User: Fold this.
Amino acid sequence: MGDFYQNGIITNFHNLRVRSTEDMEHDLLAFSRQRPMSLVLPSLFSELEGPALGHIVEELSQVRYLSEIVIGLDRADQEQFAYAKDFFGRLDQHHRILWQDGPKLQEIDVLLASKGLAPREPGKGRNVWYCYGYVLASAKSEAVALHDCDIVTYQRDLLAKLLYPVANPAFSYDFCKGYYARIADNKLNGRVSRLLVTPLLRALKKILGPMEYLEYLDSFRYPLAGEFSMRTSVFNDIRIPSDWGLEIGVLSEVKRNYSSKRLCQVDIADIYDHKHQPLSEGDVSRGLSKMSHDIIKAIFRKLATNGVQFNTETFRTIKATYYRVALDFIESYYDDAMINGLYVDRDSEERAVELFARNIMEAGQHFLENPMERPFIPSWNRVMSAVPDILERLYDAVEEDNSNL
Assistant:
């Protein structure tokens, strides 16, 4: 049974398990007449061959309140794109696939690159950014949700809970973040959130003192969740990172643009499991090592925009404080796991913390050595100002690719 405790500076919606999925979907279908809804699915082609996405499509085929499903397809050649069109053809809803590696979208990318406006790195951030551009271009929705395509425990009530706060016309929320307990196969998962983000935020609060931004991030129960929803208009004016800093970047941007009263989080799943990244201790370009590096940089960048000054000594202090806080968290999580009969490998947890501590210094040094780095993808408002017909071009490119669906 979920709790009903409200903590932090944003509203929590809990999973109290007293309402059926069908009842919630009945409401959403009524809301859709006034506030149409879309879903964005950023996907690698490899996920079409994995254990999760086929079941997700089956679950989504039962959803009647969506006006549109937009699939961002990365790392696919022409034959794989044709396969993807058949794969997603099971969806009854209006749907479109953005073939990110196809010639039509590559032409759009070249055009934007010529003006210095294209995403600089491949990855989920770039995929999501183009998908949201298409959502703006198609103008079929006023609320849009996004979730990952590797959720092996997926049930369609996840989507219903995620959309409800921003789809209900009686609510005033512009943005909603999903959260859940990372428990699967009798193990406690979610190492980057548990052992990096929360301990780092607590360490920064010790060092920097009270800051609304830190309190805000620390209010989210699972800040790295890949599931969120928003009013469609929100995406016009936010800038997001193209790397693993996407989730922290989105949270930071909506905080900059909206009152905390218009932001919320919702418990969307009792059990949540997806593919797990390797620790990659010896390679900062892969796995949890790269993920942690990108996330740390995203937090440091945002603090700098809030007037925080950093130097090498500051990062040494942050590293030392983080390490002590994180070790205390390992103890707490281990005890919590034991009382619930879950398995935690303490050696693996401590090795992860040691890696994250090293990456605090490395990310901090990178931050100091690259003061002119532009990590964010421009907002769509800026792009539309520079290329007034860009949404029409993007829409036509996607429609041409999907013309034989």
Summary: The chain has a mean pLDDT of 92. The domain at 11-400 is CATH 3.90.550.10 (Spore Coat Polysaccharide Biosynthesis Protein SpsA; Chain A). Residues 69 and 95 are 5 Å apart (CA to CA). DSSP finds 14 helices and twelve strands in the chain.
